[in-house]
Amino acid sequence: MALFCDVALAVPLDLVFTYAIPPGMEPVVGGRVLVPFRQQRLSGIAIELHDRPPRVNTAQVKIKKVIEALDLSPVLDEQLLKLGKWIADYYLAPIGEVFRTMLPLSAEFKRSIAYRITDEGRLALQEERLRGATRVAKALLSGMVRKKWIAREDVSAARDAARLVKVAVLLAAEERAEAAPPLDGRGARPHTNPAKPTAKKLNESQQALIEALAASGGRAPVEALRSLDVPRTTLGTLVRRGLIDIVDEPQNFTASKLKPRQSPFEFEFSTAQKEALAKIGEAVASRKFGGLLLHGITGSGKTAVYLACMHEVLEQGRASILLVPEIGLTPAVAADLHQVFGDEVAILHSGLSNAERAEQWHRIRRGEARVVAGTRSAVFAPVSDLALVIVDEEQDSSYKQEETPRYHARDVAVMRAKMAGAAVVLGSATPSLESYYNAKKNKYALVELPDRVEMRPLPEVEIVDMRQEFQETGQEQVISRKLAEEIRERLDKKEQVMVLLNRRGYSPVVLCRACGKTLQCKNCAVSMTHHKRERKMECHYCGHVAHIPDKCAHCGSEYVYFVGTGSEKLEELLHGMFPQARIGRLDRDTVRGREDFEHALNALNEGALDMLVGTQMIAKGHDIHGVTLVGVVGADMALGLPDFRAAERTFQLLTQVAGRAGRGQSPGKVVLQTYFQDHYAVQFAARHDFVGFYDKELQFRAWMHYPPYSAIANVLIRSEKLDEALTWSGELGRWFEKTRHEGIRVLGPAAAAITRLKRDYRYHFILKSPSREKMNTLLRAMLAEAAARKIPRTQVIVDVDAVWLM
Ligand code: ADP
Ligand code: ZN
Ligand code: ZN
């Protein structure tokens, strides 16, 4: 029996903590333990059992004991533990916070606080000073804690997260027959059971309830029976009479309601699809790590390839994971997955509650679901015998977590596959520069789907130069004459239209014409956005909401103007131009949950909408065959941002949204409005030329020492106090200067592009190095320096492979 246990706790400290194991307790490595930490109880992961007493401070600090071992077997197996350690190391994240991200089990740990009366308190009680204090305010309790009459204790403990529902079960027919003959007398039994003298006739309500239950196969949730037109007491009566039983059952996970598309296996696979399948199949069969980049243009049938190879893996009794970028992609894919895999699939996405997430996690762990699909954190699904990981739209920035641990799910997927000896497939129409570069360097096998299915043509793209439109019409236009004309034509032909404007709200800026100032968020250095229907101003960065101003906050002038256009205003404008058209909108204001999303897509699919307006949410993945025109209204705003990935992102967005047109029988067209018509991102997107874009962008990256040629990290120093942020970044700046670090460029400190965000003032450094190892060594030294200077760990953010430099 080991004496000590090293525990990783989800606290922002780069340490593990050693606890003593009380006799008789048997924690397991990879299992959760409950331990005292400062004034709390925390659950952490046991990462090592050993007999080495902790050296430091043993004289003064008494080593604390593990309170409870929460698991009999590991919740993180050896491979996931190893993966967690790799993430902590690579992204410089506290290991306990990494494990917390990997385990969606927070629902199983209930925080609760108890108050225990102390001896002093008992004494006071005898003096009757505490009488009547059983239901008291927290402030009063705190007061008593200070007086040491009572002690506050954290008594948090594990609890079972499975949500149970009450289900009514109809007992076997014979048992019922014995209890009661049918009402109408037809087929009446020759005799009633004399052993059951209490048997009585069923009244109408009781009969109705029993029939309803029989009709639904003999069992139904109690909640569902409530909708029957019978008195509430009826069920209870039937239970007492032994006709119905009530049992607790785990609530079923509700599957996606999106109508499944054509079965993914009904058509003949194209030659290219077959080749892709064969290559992926080989990689899986080798039982060694193998990476493939599946570069397939929009509409080339990538999803069908994913499903087919996951199907093969399942037939071999092995497991696979499919990662999708965000909720937007999940409903259609979820419907397909359910159709192909039925109950064998577990779906994890951002719309799940903690309890639902825990439930799915347990199903996967028990081996009931060997096909897992989900967003970012699904890469940690506890499957065993992992054979294949697929990352769809691998370039998508939502794979990067923008809080600690700042991991990139695509890169973690590759590492997980390496550790498991599995195959990993990165799929995209517009691969990231990094992945395509890796494929070119033979780190991944490049597999291409160069044509759309059934040789459908890619849409023709027409560029409309908005500067010229302004000169010719004499005013700022949102919808160009060309786009209006094309929309009208489609509506006449009963075809469908999508219009992209990648900015939600009504107007993004409120400007004072008298003093020139704009309305800024009180927490962030950004403009507040006007939301007309909800009659508010909202900050899109921190969520702060304010009244719509009737005069300028700076000078009091009444000349405040709402400038610019968001998706809400675009919808209104289109309504005005095409009053008969049925127009829907998809953005974060209209989509509160998965249901809204599916609703809008279904409506478009079924022809209940003529036009769909929206932000990048409409650009991704959707496969709607009636759409023949895509209008792009301002998707090039990003080109003006100070971020080296601006061109890449714009190219990807334009290519993606263009890919929504002409996926059915009729060919598609794209009208691309832009103020940057000569920009290479716009030009290559219009020509559907990924390789052209890649070559050009790669030159720029080489020249500027950006990825894929250099590893980069963003180090952000933040504080609500401007002088603190300045002092700390100054100190670290001087430290970087005097530290010798060959082969690493350090830029900064500089004010971040968004100088203030969520109340914090922000300064940053950008590190670039061809050697990731050297870069991480320097970053570790920097963190040690920051700790020595008493800069709180939470105020120094290290973002390795940063995706946003804002
Ligand atoms: P991608 O993900 O590459 O954009 P999808 O996988 O969504 O493309 O496929 C586009 C459409 O073509 C879907 O409706 C799909 O069912 C269909 N499809 C896929 N493969 C074939 C094929 N071999 N023959 C006919 N239709 C196909
Ligand atoms: Zn003003
Ligand atoms: Zn804000």
Which descriptors would you attach to this protein?
single chain, 806 residues, alpha/beta, 6-stranded parallel sheet, 23 helices, 34 strands, 32% helix, globular, binds adenosine-5'-diphosphate, binds zinc ion
Describe this structure in words.
With 806 residues, this protein is an alpha/beta fold. The protein is 32% helix and 23% strand. It contains 23 helices and 34 strands. Strands 15-16-14-17-18-13-19 form a 7-stranded parallel β-sheet, with helices on both faces. The protein has a 6-stranded parallel β-sheet with strand order 20-30-29-21-28-27, with helices on both faces. The protein has a 5-stranded antiparallel β-sheet with strand order 2-1-4-3-5. Helix 9 packs parallel to helix 10 (302-315), helix 19 packs parallel to helix 20 (680-686) and helix 20 runs antiparallel to helix 21. The longest helix has 17 residues, at 722-738. The radius of gyration is 31 Å and the shape is globular. The two termini are 51 Å apart. Residues 130-135, 158-162, 180-199 and 252-259 have low confidence and may be disordered. Residues 261-262, 264, 267-270, 273, 296, 298-304, 453-454, 623 line the site of adenosine-5'-diphosphate.
